[in-house]
Amino acid sequence: MKIYLSFLMVVILLGCNEKQKKTNNVVPAEKPTPAISYQYVASYPHDITSFTEGFLFYNGKLFESTGATTELPQTRSLFGIVNLTTGKIDTKVEIDKVKYFGEGITILNGKIYQLTYRSKVGFVYDATTYKKLSEFTLPSDEGWGLTTDGTNLIMSDGTYELIYLDPATLQAIKRVPVTEKGTGIVNINELEYINGYIFANIWTTNTIIKINPSDGTVIGKLDLSSLSDDAKSINPGSLEMNGIAFNATTGRVFITGKMWPKIYELQLGN
């Protein structure tokens, strides 16, 4: 009987050890990417013919760049200053929409930089006179969004990479893969640099991601489906969300989309 009990104890202990090993090997579930909260502040009119590709504040004025597609003959490739009372753009530059599809813009050191979609051409203008200063070749097959960290230009091309350009040479100096939980995030579109982080629209979604520029990791997500729903309830022709402009004076963010009837002013949480 003692032999049997000893054998039984050994079996139980082995079973407990094996169970402990299996428990120790369980990989804890990854925490979801933190959601970014926001508060609605106000809304302003937006021209429903504006196929929004770029959005930013400069010297207290809201700039918007737009593209033009043959499927929507009312659209134009231009950029200018938005009148927040009417939503209309005071056009400063318009490019030939037969040759070019206007994309993102940014302003750095007194110059405006503009991307085009598939023509692989970018333009540089004087930020005061809006006179074209030069052209440059894009380091990618497509141009999408554009922003600046105050030193470099940062562009997206629809892939999972952000491309940093030297504003003096307009050559690519580095590429940063954008990942969430180790997976590359594609369709990165319009960009805005806010307090040390890059915020980006994801094409065809109502999501804005917050990117740590040092390593490209997504550290926050903003779901703005309610704004998209509101825009489409007013203008059923509203397309995807695409426009993030940070007002550094107030700390608030202005959001819009392609052919949306409104611009939304938001206060973002952490």
Summary tags:
12% helix, Neuraminidase, mainly beta, single chain, 270 residues
Number of domains: 1
Q: How many helix segments? A: 2
CATH class: Mainly Beta
Quaternary structure annotation:
single chain
The CA-CA distance between the termini, in Å, is 67 Å
| Sequence stretches where pLDDT stays below 50 over 5 or more residues | 1-23
CATH superfamily: TolB, C-terminal domain
Class from helix and strand fractions: mainly beta
Explain the overall architecture.
With 270 residues, the chain is mostly beta strands. The protein has a single domain (31-268), classed as 6 Propeller (Neuraminidase). The radius of gyration is 24 Å and the shape is globular. 12% of the residues lie in helices and 46% in strands. The strands form six sheets. A four-stranded antiparallel beta sheet has the order 1-22-21-20. A four-stranded antiparallel beta sheet has the order 2-3-4-5, with no helix packed on it. The chain has a four-stranded antiparallel beta sheet with strand order 6-7-8-9, with no helix packed on it. The longest helix is centred in the first third of the chain and has 23 residues, at 2-24.
Break the fold down into its secondary structure elements and pairings.
Elements: H1 2-24, E1 38-45, E2 52-58, E3 61-66, E4 78-82, E5 89-94, E6 102-108, E7 111-116, E8 121-126, E9 132-137, E10 146-148, E11 153-156, E12 161-165, E13 172-177, E14 179-180, E15 183-184, E16 188-194, E17 197-202, E18 207-211, E19 218-223, H2 225-234, E20 241-247, E21 252-257, E22 262-268
Antiparallel strand pairs: 1-22, 2-3, 3-4, 4-5, 6-7, 7-8, 8-9, 10-11, 11-12, 12-13, 14-15, 16-17, 17-18, 18-19, 20-21, 21-22
